[in-house]
Amino acid sequence: MKVKDVGITGWGSCVPEGVVTNLELEGMVSTSDDWIRDRTGIIKRHVACRGEKTSNLSISALQNAMSLAKVEPDEIDLIIVATSSPDMLFPATSCIVQDAIGAKNAAAFDLSLACSGFVYALCVGAQFIQSKAYKCVAVIGADILTRFIDWSDRKTAILFGDGAGACILKNMPGNEWWFFLGSDGSGAEHLKITGSGSTDPGQRSANQKKLSIIEMNGQEVFKFAVRSMVQSVKNVLEESNLSYDDISKIVPHQANKRIIESVRKHLKLEGDKFYVNVERFGNTSAASIPIAIDEAYRSGVLKTGDKVVLAAFGAGFAFGSGLISL
Is 115 a catalytic residue? Predict the structure, then answer.
């Protein structure tokens, strides 16, 4: 899927101040620092404190992106928040963000697709720019999935962190992006938050906190993650007629270092082709890719004009890739 005349004028991110290290997890669940590092590459993760909400992180990330892009609130026409952990089922977190930043002219909606959400939201936002329906679109990926962790479950307690990342889209004549999106709902049972929707409403009302937890079949998620990210990276490059030499970095969803390493081996690329920061943030779901790009851009690893491939997978199962320029 080709999208034309779209560009990014600013990136921003925000993570909670609170940090949980592997050593601290040793006192909460049967695990060790060495075991977590070996299997995930994660050393620490930022965790939201009581009272901190997905909208809070989204607002700060967006304001950082607006500052870099030199965009005023009344210039924004649309705000899209990709999240699976909204402040509440409704109103949409995007509407709370819209009001908080004073974007009085902006429409707003949420997009729920777990860890793949930011790539999908970026694709949707870019098409509003391409069609000339809007001149300025804010895209945010934000999640506080630690609210849904069973801290006694070693399979999930070690993986997730909280955060938000954002970017500002505007018209940029001559720019060309490509996206490849897909889904496989047959994998829905392998990664889910039970008790979080209309399923089993009676049980939720009886003991909601206990039931609203992440459940994951790690082996099935790993196999799908590698297969889908390899496929989507190859497809988006093939459609663009570009080669890996034309790409500055591949920025994968930061879920697990073993998954990223397996994708790298299947694509037969060197490690420095990938930007990885999972060791310091854990899996921040929809926020992981924009947090990584914001960090890489502000540190000089990526610069204006660089071509970057984004690759995501997550619950659904859903997956997607994007070839964009900064």
Answer: yes
Q: Which of 14, 115, 123, 167 is catalytic?
A: 115
pLDDT of residue 161: 97
Contact 180, 1 (CB under 8 A): yes
- Bridging pattern class, strands 78-82 and 136-144: parallel
Residue of 56, 95, 253, 256 marked catalytic: 253
Residues 54-71: pLDDT tens digits? 999 999 999 999 999 999
Confidence of residue 208 (pLDDT cuts 50, 70, 90): low
Residue with tokens 């801290």: 151
Q: How far apart are CA 316 and CA 134, in angstroms?
A: 30
Active site residue 123: no
Confidence grade of residue 28 (pLDDT, cut at 50, 70, 90): confident
Backbone angles phi, psi at 65, to 5 degrees: -65, -40
Secondary structure of residue 137 in the 3-state scheme: strand
Task: Give dist(CA 42, CA 293) in Å, integer.
Answer: 18
Whether 283 sits among the annotated catalytic residues: the reply is: yes
0.90 exceeded by pTM: yes
